[in-house]
Amino acid sequence: MANDLCFFNKGTFIIKPPKKSPLVLRMIVLAFAMICGVYICLICLNQINTHTKTRLVNFPVIERPCHASGIKKWEIPYVHYPKPKTYSRAECADNPVKFFAILSMQRSGSGWFETLLNSHINVSSNGEIFSVKDRRSNVSSIVKTLDKVYNLDWFSSASKNECTAAVGFKWMLNQGLMQHHKEIADYFNSRGVSAIFLFRRNLLRRMISVLANSYDQHAKTLNRTHKSHVHSLEEAEELSKYKPTINATSLIPDLKLVEERTAKALEYFKITRHIILYYEDLINNSTKCQKLIDVQEFLRVPPRDLKSNQVKIHKGSLEKQVVNWNDVQKTLTGTPYESFFHSDYQI
Ligand SMILES: *[C@@H]1O[C@H](CO)[C@@H](O)[C@H](O)[C@H]1NC(C)=O
Ligand SMILES: *[C@@H]1O[C@H](CO)[C@@H](O)[C@H](O)[C@H]1NC(C)=O
Ligand SMILES: *[C@@H]1O[C@H](CO)[C@@H](O)[C@H](O)[C@H]1NC(C)=O
Ligand SMILES: *[C@@H]1O[C@H](CO)[C@@H](O)[C@H](O)[C@H]1NC(C)=O
Ligand SMILES: *[C@@H]1O[C@H](CO)[C@@H](O)[C@H](O)[C@H]1NC(C)=O
Ligand SMILES: *[C@@H]1O[C@H](CO)[C@@H](O)[C@H](O)[C@H]1NC(C)=O
Protein backbone atom coordinates (compact mmCIF):
# COMPACT_ATOMS: atom_id res chain seq x y z
CA MET A 1 0.00 0.00 0.00
CA ALA A 2 1.40 3.38 -0.92
CA ASN A 3 2.40 5.34 2.14
CA ASP A 4 3.65 8.80 2.04
CA LEU A 5 0.94 11.04 0.65
CA CYS A 6 0.03 13.41 3.42
CA PHE A 7 2.33 16.26 4.14
CA PHE A 8 2.54 17.71 7.57
CA ASN A 9 4.65 20.62 8.70
CA LYS A 10 6.02 19.26 11.91
CA GLY A 11 3.93 20.29 14.87
CA THR A 12 1.45 22.41 13.00
CA PHE A 13 -2.12 21.72 12.09
CA ILE A 14 -3.01 21.43 8.46
CA ILE A 15 -4.58 24.48 6.92
CA LYS A 16 -5.89 24.07 3.42
CA PRO A 17 -3.89 25.98 0.81
CA PRO A 18 -5.28 29.46 0.29
CA LYS A 19 -7.38 29.72 -2.81
CA LYS A 20 -8.28 33.38 -2.42
CA SER A 21 -6.00 36.11 -1.16
CA PRO A 22 -3.51 34.75 1.41
CA LEU A 23 -3.67 38.02 3.34
CA VAL A 24 -7.43 37.82 3.83
CA LEU A 25 -7.11 34.22 4.88
CA ARG A 26 -4.40 35.05 7.36
CA MET A 27 -6.55 37.76 8.87
CA ILE A 28 -9.43 35.32 9.18
CA VAL A 29 -7.22 32.74 10.85
CA LEU A 30 -5.84 35.38 13.20
CA ALA A 31 -9.29 36.61 14.13
CA PHE A 32 -10.46 33.04 14.60
CA ALA A 33 -7.50 32.26 16.86
CA MET A 34 -8.25 35.33 18.97
CA ILE A 35 -11.91 34.46 19.31
CA CYS A 36 -10.98 30.89 20.27
CA GLY A 37 -8.54 32.17 22.87
CA VAL A 38 -11.12 34.41 24.48
CA TYR A 39 -13.70 31.64 24.32
CA ILE A 40 -11.41 29.12 26.02
CA CYS A 41 -10.62 31.62 28.79
CA LEU A 42 -14.33 32.23 29.33
CA ILE A 43 -14.99 28.52 29.57
CA CYS A 44 -12.13 28.12 32.02
CA LEU A 45 -13.51 30.84 34.28
CA ASN A 46 -16.91 29.32 33.96
CA GLN A 47 -15.67 25.91 35.03
CA ILE A 48 -13.78 27.24 38.02
CA ASN A 49 -16.95 28.99 39.09
CA THR A 50 -19.18 25.96 38.79
CA HIS A 51 -16.50 23.98 40.53
CA THR A 52 -16.52 26.17 43.62
CA LYS A 53 -20.27 26.71 43.70
CA THR A 54 -21.95 23.46 42.87
CA ARG A 55 -20.61 20.07 42.00
CA LEU A 56 -22.92 19.59 39.10
CA VAL A 57 -21.23 16.77 37.28
CA ASN A 58 -18.80 14.28 38.55
CA PHE A 59 -16.38 13.97 35.69
CA PRO A 60 -12.75 13.63 36.69
CA VAL A 61 -11.90 16.53 34.41
CA ILE A 62 -13.67 18.96 36.71
CA GLU A 63 -11.05 18.18 39.29
CA ARG A 64 -8.46 19.71 37.04
CA PRO A 65 -10.14 22.53 35.20
CA CYS A 66 -8.39 23.69 32.06
CA HIS A 67 -5.65 21.25 32.70
CA ALA A 68 -4.77 20.23 29.21
CA SER A 69 -5.28 23.42 27.28
CA GLY A 70 -7.79 23.41 24.46
CA ILE A 71 -10.33 21.01 25.93
CA LYS A 72 -13.71 22.34 24.92
CA LYS A 73 -16.80 22.07 27.03
CA TRP A 74 -18.50 19.48 24.80
CA GLU A 75 -15.39 17.31 24.95
CA ILE A 76 -15.40 16.92 28.71
CA PRO A 77 -17.46 13.70 28.78
CA TYR A 78 -15.09 12.17 26.21
CA VAL A 79 -11.85 12.99 28.00
CA HIS A 80 -10.50 10.63 30.63
CA TYR A 81 -7.59 10.21 33.00
CA PRO A 82 -7.33 6.45 33.56
CA LYS A 83 -5.24 5.06 36.37
CA PRO A 84 -4.01 1.65 35.22
CA LYS A 85 -3.69 -0.99 37.90
CA THR A 86 -0.58 -2.53 36.44
CA TYR A 87 1.72 0.42 35.87
CA SER A 88 2.02 4.17 36.29
CA ARG A 89 1.29 6.55 33.44
CA ALA A 90 4.39 8.44 34.57
CA GLU A 91 5.02 11.71 32.79
CA CYS A 92 1.84 11.30 30.76
CA ALA A 93 -0.49 10.90 33.76
CA ASP A 94 -1.89 14.37 33.09
CA ASN A 95 -2.49 13.80 29.37
CA PRO A 96 -6.16 13.27 28.57
CA VAL A 97 -7.17 9.94 26.97
CA LYS A 98 -10.01 9.36 24.53
CA PHE A 99 -11.87 6.05 24.25
CA PHE A 100 -12.91 4.67 20.89
CA ALA A 101 -14.18 1.51 19.18
CA ILE A 102 -13.95 0.75 15.46
CA LEU A 103 -17.27 -0.86 14.50
CA SER A 104 -16.93 -2.76 11.26
CA MET A 105 -17.49 -5.97 9.33
CA GLN A 106 -15.01 -8.58 8.17
CA ARG A 107 -13.15 -7.74 4.95
CA SER A 108 -13.88 -4.02 5.05
CA GLY A 109 -10.32 -2.82 5.45
CA SER A 110 -10.47 -2.56 9.22
CA GLY A 111 -7.25 -4.52 9.74
CA TRP A 112 -5.42 -2.17 7.43
CA PHE A 113 -7.10 0.87 8.98
CA GLU A 114 -6.03 -0.30 12.41
CA THR A 115 -2.38 -0.56 11.37
CA LEU A 116 -2.66 3.03 10.11
CA LEU A 117 -4.04 4.22 13.45
CA ASN A 118 -1.41 2.30 15.37
CA SER A 119 1.34 4.01 13.44
CA HIS A 120 0.41 7.07 15.49
CA ILE A 121 2.65 7.31 18.53
CA ASN A 122 -0.29 8.15 20.83
CA VAL A 123 -2.94 5.73 19.54
CA SER A 124 -3.45 2.17 20.79
CA SER A 125 -5.97 0.08 18.90
CA ASN A 126 -5.85 -3.38 20.40
CA GLY A 127 -7.21 -5.54 17.61
CA GLU A 128 -10.26 -7.77 17.45
CA ILE A 129 -10.47 -8.53 21.15
CA PHE A 130 -14.01 -9.91 20.94
CA SER A 131 -13.05 -12.61 18.46
CA VAL A 132 -12.51 -14.66 21.64
CA LYS A 133 -15.95 -16.09 22.48
CA ASP A 134 -15.56 -16.07 26.27
CA ARG A 135 -15.14 -12.31 26.29
CA ARG A 136 -18.53 -11.79 24.63
CA SER A 137 -20.55 -14.65 26.06
CA ASN A 138 -22.63 -12.29 28.22
CA VAL A 139 -22.92 -8.61 29.00
CA SER A 140 -20.92 -8.82 32.19
CA SER A 141 -17.89 -10.32 30.48
CA ILE A 142 -18.20 -7.70 27.72
CA VAL A 143 -18.23 -4.92 30.29
CA LYS A 144 -15.33 -6.44 32.19
CA THR A 145 -13.28 -6.60 28.99
CA LEU A 146 -14.18 -3.03 28.01
CA ASP A 147 -13.28 -1.73 31.46
CA LYS A 148 -9.88 -3.34 31.21
CA VAL A 149 -9.19 -1.89 27.76
CA TYR A 150 -10.29 1.62 28.69
CA ASN A 151 -8.39 1.53 31.95
CA LEU A 152 -5.27 1.00 29.81
CA ASP A 153 -4.72 -2.38 31.45
CA TRP A 154 -5.07 -4.35 28.23
CA PHE A 155 -1.83 -5.52 26.69
CA SER A 156 -1.37 -6.24 23.02
CA SER A 157 1.36 -5.56 20.50
CA ALA A 158 -0.42 -2.26 19.82
CA SER A 159 -0.60 -0.89 23.34
CA LYS A 160 1.56 2.12 23.95
CA ASN A 161 0.69 2.34 27.61
CA GLU A 162 1.61 5.47 29.47
CA CYS A 163 1.59 7.98 26.61
CA THR A 164 -1.54 6.73 24.90
CA ALA A 165 -3.91 9.59 24.05
CA ALA A 166 -6.58 7.45 22.38
CA VAL A 167 -7.30 3.83 23.23
CA GLY A 168 -9.65 1.38 21.55
CA PHE A 169 -10.02 -1.79 19.51
CA LYS A 170 -12.01 -3.09 16.59
CA TRP A 171 -15.31 -4.76 17.00
CA MET A 172 -17.07 -6.71 14.26
CA LEU A 173 -20.84 -6.40 14.15
CA ASN A 174 -21.20 -10.18 14.49
CA GLN A 175 -19.13 -10.37 17.67
CA GLY A 176 -21.90 -9.76 20.19
CA LEU A 177 -22.21 -6.11 19.23
CA MET A 178 -25.61 -6.36 17.57
CA GLN A 179 -26.86 -8.96 20.00
CA HIS A 180 -26.17 -6.81 23.07
CA HIS A 181 -26.48 -3.45 21.36
CA LYS A 182 -28.63 -1.85 24.02
CA GLU A 183 -26.22 -2.44 26.91
CA ILE A 184 -23.20 -1.63 24.77
CA ALA A 185 -24.67 1.66 23.56
CA ASP A 186 -25.45 2.53 27.19
CA TYR A 187 -21.88 1.74 28.14
CA PHE A 188 -20.49 3.86 25.30
CA ASN A 189 -22.70 6.79 26.22
CA SER A 190 -22.08 6.68 29.93
CA ARG A 191 -18.33 6.10 29.65
CA GLY A 192 -17.83 8.59 26.83
CA VAL A 193 -16.68 6.11 24.19
CA SER A 194 -16.66 7.36 20.58
CA ALA A 195 -17.50 5.02 17.70
CA ILE A 196 -15.67 4.89 14.38
CA PHE A 197 -17.86 3.13 11.83
CA LEU A 198 -15.86 1.66 9.01
CA PHE A 199 -17.84 0.25 6.12
CA ARG A 200 -17.21 -0.70 2.55
CA ARG A 201 -19.43 0.72 -0.17
CA ASN A 202 -18.72 -1.94 -2.75
CA LEU A 203 -20.37 -4.95 -1.15
CA LEU A 204 -19.67 -7.15 -4.16
CA ARG A 205 -15.93 -6.72 -3.75
CA ARG A 206 -16.35 -7.34 -0.07
CA MET A 207 -18.21 -10.57 -0.83
CA ILE A 208 -15.40 -11.78 -3.08
CA SER A 209 -12.92 -11.04 -0.32
CA VAL A 210 -15.04 -12.90 2.25
CA LEU A 211 -15.31 -15.97 0.00
CA ALA A 212 -11.60 -15.98 -0.83
CA ASN A 213 -10.60 -15.52 2.78
CA SER A 214 -12.84 -18.32 3.92
CA TYR A 215 -11.40 -20.58 1.19
CA ASP A 216 -7.88 -19.78 2.41
CA GLN A 217 -8.76 -20.73 5.95
CA HIS A 218 -8.81 -24.32 4.70
CA ALA A 219 -6.47 -24.14 1.72
CA LYS A 220 -3.70 -22.26 3.58
CA THR A 221 -2.19 -21.07 0.33
CA LEU A 222 0.85 -19.32 1.72
CA ASN A 223 3.30 -21.85 2.99
CA ARG A 224 0.55 -23.85 4.68
CA THR A 225 -0.55 -20.94 6.84
CA HIS A 226 -3.75 -18.96 6.55
CA LYS A 227 -3.28 -15.23 6.10
CA SER A 228 -6.04 -12.64 6.14
CA HIS A 229 -3.66 -9.74 5.54
CA VAL A 230 -0.39 -9.68 3.66
CA HIS A 231 2.65 -7.43 3.49
CA SER A 232 4.15 -8.15 0.09
CA LEU A 233 3.00 -8.02 -3.52
CA GLU A 234 4.07 -11.64 -4.04
CA GLU A 235 1.86 -12.88 -1.24
CA ALA A 236 -1.05 -10.77 -2.50
CA GLU A 237 -0.61 -12.20 -5.98
CA GLU A 238 -0.49 -15.74 -4.67
CA LEU A 239 -3.69 -15.27 -2.64
CA SER A 240 -5.56 -13.51 -5.43
CA LYS A 241 -5.04 -16.52 -7.74
CA TYR A 242 -8.02 -18.19 -6.15
CA LYS A 243 -11.31 -17.20 -7.76
CA PRO A 244 -14.55 -17.90 -5.93
CA THR A 245 -17.86 -18.86 -7.49
CA ILE A 246 -20.65 -16.58 -6.34
CA ASN A 247 -24.06 -18.11 -5.67
CA ALA A 248 -26.19 -16.11 -8.11
CA THR A 249 -29.46 -17.24 -6.50
CA SER A 250 -28.66 -15.87 -3.09
CA LEU A 251 -26.55 -12.95 -4.32
CA ILE A 252 -29.17 -10.19 -4.04
CA PRO A 253 -30.61 -11.36 -0.70
CA ASP A 254 -27.04 -11.65 0.63
CA LEU A 255 -26.16 -8.10 -0.41
CA LYS A 256 -29.42 -6.83 1.06
CA LEU A 257 -28.68 -8.54 4.34
CA VAL A 258 -25.35 -6.73 4.65
CA GLU A 259 -27.01 -3.41 3.85
CA GLU A 260 -29.66 -4.00 6.48
CA ARG A 261 -27.08 -4.93 9.07
CA THR A 262 -25.19 -1.72 8.39
CA ALA A 263 -28.33 0.38 8.68
CA LYS A 264 -29.29 -1.33 11.92
CA ALA A 265 -25.88 -0.76 13.46
CA LEU A 266 -26.08 2.94 12.61
CA GLU A 267 -29.53 3.10 14.13
CA TYR A 268 -28.48 1.34 17.34
CA PHE A 269 -25.52 3.64 17.91
CA LYS A 270 -26.86 6.87 16.46
CA ILE A 271 -26.77 8.78 19.75
CA THR A 272 -23.22 7.63 20.46
CA ARG A 273 -20.66 10.19 19.32
CA HIS A 274 -19.47 8.74 16.01
CA ILE A 275 -17.83 9.22 12.65
CA ILE A 276 -18.59 7.16 9.53
CA LEU A 277 -15.73 6.16 7.26
CA TYR A 278 -15.75 4.23 4.01
CA TYR A 279 -12.90 2.01 2.95
CA GLU A 280 -13.16 3.39 -0.58
CA ASP A 281 -12.43 6.92 0.65
CA LEU A 282 -9.43 5.72 2.63
CA ILE A 283 -7.75 4.09 -0.35
CA ASN A 284 -8.60 6.86 -2.82
CA ASN A 285 -5.59 9.15 -3.24
CA SER A 286 -7.77 12.21 -3.58
CA THR A 287 -9.69 11.68 -0.33
CA LYS A 288 -7.34 9.63 1.83
CA CYS A 289 -5.42 12.48 3.50
CA GLN A 290 -8.53 14.39 4.45
CA LYS A 291 -10.19 11.29 5.90
CA LEU A 292 -7.13 10.44 7.98
CA ILE A 293 -6.99 14.00 9.27
CA ASP A 294 -10.73 13.84 10.03
CA VAL A 295 -10.35 10.71 12.11
CA GLN A 296 -7.40 12.11 14.05
CA GLU A 297 -9.37 15.26 14.77
CA PHE A 298 -12.29 13.11 15.81
CA LEU A 299 -10.00 11.34 18.29
CA ARG A 300 -8.46 14.68 19.27
CA VAL A 301 -4.91 13.44 18.81
CA PRO A 302 -2.19 15.59 17.24
CA PRO A 303 -2.42 14.88 13.48
CA ARG A 304 0.38 12.85 11.96
CA ASP A 305 1.19 11.09 8.74
CA LEU A 306 -0.15 7.55 9.20
CA LYS A 307 1.46 4.57 7.50
CA SER A 308 0.79 0.91 6.90
CA ASN A 309 2.81 -1.84 5.25
CA GLN A 310 -0.17 -3.98 4.32
CA VAL A 311 -0.75 -4.81 0.68
CA LYS A 312 -4.17 -5.09 -0.93
CA ILE A 313 -4.98 -8.61 -2.08
CA HIS A 314 -7.66 -8.20 -4.74
CA LYS A 315 -7.27 -5.44 -7.26
CA GLY A 316 -8.23 -4.61 -10.78
CA SER A 317 -11.42 -5.43 -12.61
CA LEU A 318 -14.01 -7.62 -10.97
CA GLU A 319 -14.68 -9.92 -13.90
CA LYS A 320 -11.23 -11.48 -13.52
CA GLN A 321 -11.86 -12.28 -9.87
CA VAL A 322 -14.93 -14.47 -10.11
CA VAL A 323 -15.44 -17.78 -11.92
CA ASN A 324 -19.06 -17.22 -12.94
CA TRP A 325 -18.85 -13.56 -13.83
CA ASN A 326 -21.59 -13.82 -16.48
CA ASP A 327 -24.13 -15.07 -13.93
CA VAL A 328 -23.21 -12.32 -11.52
CA GLN A 329 -23.51 -9.70 -14.21
CA LYS A 330 -26.88 -11.01 -15.36
CA THR A 331 -28.21 -11.07 -11.80
CA LEU A 332 -27.18 -7.55 -10.86
CA THR A 333 -27.78 -5.71 -14.12
CA GLY A 334 -30.79 -3.44 -13.76
CA THR A 335 -30.64 -3.46 -9.97
CA PRO A 336 -29.20 -0.72 -7.71
CA TYR A 337 -26.22 -3.00 -7.16
CA GLU A 338 -25.14 -2.56 -10.77
CA SER A 339 -22.97 0.34 -9.66
CA PHE A 340 -20.65 -2.13 -7.95
CA PHE A 341 -19.38 -3.09 -11.42
CA HIS A 342 -18.15 0.39 -12.19
CA SER A 343 -16.70 1.81 -9.02
CA ASP A 344 -13.25 0.52 -9.75
CA TYR A 345 -10.07 1.78 -8.24
CA GLN A 346 -6.44 1.14 -8.82
CA ILE A 347 -4.03 0.49 -6.06
C1 LIG B 1 -20.49 -14.75 31.73
O1 LIG B 1 -19.52 -15.45 30.95
C2 LIG B 1 -18.35 -15.80 31.66
C3 LIG B 1 -17.35 -16.38 30.69
O2 LIG B 1 -17.92 -17.22 29.75
C4 LIG B 1 -18.72 -16.78 32.78
O3 LIG B 1 -17.58 -17.17 33.50
C5 LIG B 1 -19.72 -16.10 33.70
O4 LIG B 1 -20.16 -17.02 34.70
C6 LIG B 1 -20.92 -15.57 32.93
N1 LIG B 1 -21.72 -14.74 33.81
C7 LIG B 1 -23.05 -14.77 33.82
C8 LIG B 1 -23.72 -13.81 34.75
O5 LIG B 1 -23.68 -15.51 33.10
C1 LIG C 1 2.41 11.22 22.70
O1 LIG C 1 3.51 10.39 23.01
C2 LIG C 1 4.71 11.11 23.26
C3 LIG C 1 5.86 10.11 23.40
O2 LIG C 1 5.49 8.95 24.09
C4 LIG C 1 4.53 11.96 24.49
O3 LIG C 1 5.71 12.69 24.76
C5 LIG C 1 3.37 12.94 24.24
O4 LIG C 1 3.11 13.70 25.41
C6 LIG C 1 2.11 12.17 23.84
N1 LIG C 1 1.09 13.12 23.41
C7 LIG C 1 -0.15 13.11 23.87
C8 LIG C 1 -1.08 14.11 23.29
O5 LIG C 1 -0.51 12.32 24.73
C1 LIG D 1 7.88 -21.34 4.62
O1 LIG D 1 8.11 -21.80 5.93
C2 LIG D 1 9.45 -22.28 6.15
C3 LIG D 1 9.53 -22.88 7.54
O2 LIG D 1 8.68 -22.26 8.43
C4 LIG D 1 10.40 -21.09 5.98
O3 LIG D 1 11.73 -21.52 6.19
C5 LIG D 1 10.25 -20.53 4.58
O4 LIG D 1 11.06 -19.38 4.44
C6 LIG D 1 8.80 -20.17 4.30
N1 LIG D 1 8.67 -19.79 2.91
C7 LIG D 1 7.99 -18.71 2.52
C8 LIG D 1 7.90 -18.49 1.05
O5 LIG D 1 7.46 -17.94 3.33
C1 LIG E 1 -27.35 -20.95 -3.50
O1 LIG E 1 -28.26 -20.32 -2.65
C2 LIG E 1 -29.56 -20.94 -2.63
C3 LIG E 1 -30.49 -20.05 -1.84
O2 LIG E 1 -29.91 -19.67 -0.61
C4 LIG E 1 -29.39 -22.33 -2.05
O3 LIG E 1 -30.66 -22.97 -2.01
C5 LIG E 1 -28.43 -23.13 -2.88
O4 LIG E 1 -28.18 -24.40 -2.31
C6 LIG E 1 -27.11 -22.39 -3.03
N1 LIG E 1 -26.27 -23.08 -4.01
C7 LIG E 1 -25.02 -23.47 -3.74
C8 LIG E 1 -24.28 -24.12 -4.84
O5 LIG E 1 -24.50 -23.29 -2.63
C1 LIG F 1 -1.74 7.12 -5.35
O1 LIG F 1 -0.57 7.64 -4.76
C2 LIG F 1 0.53 6.74 -4.77
C3 LIG F 1 1.66 7.36 -3.99
O2 LIG F 1 1.74 8.72 -4.17
C4 LIG F 1 0.91 6.44 -6.21
O3 LIG F 1 1.98 5.51 -6.23
C5 LIG F 1 -0.29 5.83 -6.92
O4 LIG F 1 0.01 5.62 -8.28
C6 LIG F 1 -1.49 6.74 -6.81
N1 LIG F 1 -2.63 6.08 -7.36
C7 LIG F 1 -3.49 6.66 -8.17
C8 LIG F 1 -4.62 5.83 -8.67
O5 LIG F 1 -3.41 7.83 -8.49
C1 LIG G 1 -11.74 9.35 -5.64
O1 LIG G 1 -12.31 10.48 -5.03
C2 LIG G 1 -12.69 11.50 -5.94
C3 LIG G 1 -13.13 12.71 -5.13
O2 LIG G 1 -14.16 12.40 -4.24
C4 LIG G 1 -13.80 10.97 -6.85
O3 LIG G 1 -14.18 11.97 -7.78
C5 LIG G 1 -13.27 9.75 -7.59
O4 LIG G 1 -14.30 9.17 -8.36
C6 LIG G 1 -12.75 8.72 -6.60
N1 LIG G 1 -12.12 7.64 -7.33
C7 LIG G 1 -12.53 6.40 -7.23
C8 LIG G 1 -11.79 5.44 -8.10
O5 LIG G 1 -13.44 6.06 -6.50
Automatic annotation (TrEMBL):
TM stretches of this protein: 23-45
Keyword Transmembrane tagged: yes
Keyword Transmembrane among record annotations: yes
UniProt cross-references to InterPro entries, sorted A to Z: Nod_factor_sulfotransferase, P-loop_NTPase
UniProt keyword annotations, A-Z: Membrane, Transmembrane, Transmembrane helix
PANTHER family according to UniProt: PROTEIN, PUTATIVE, EXPRESSED-RELATED (PTHR32175), SULFOTRANSFERASE (PTHR32175:SF0)
Protein name listed in UniProt: Sulfotransferase
The organism's taxonomic lineage, starting at the top: Eukaryota, Viridiplantae, Streptophyta, Embryophyta, Tracheophyta
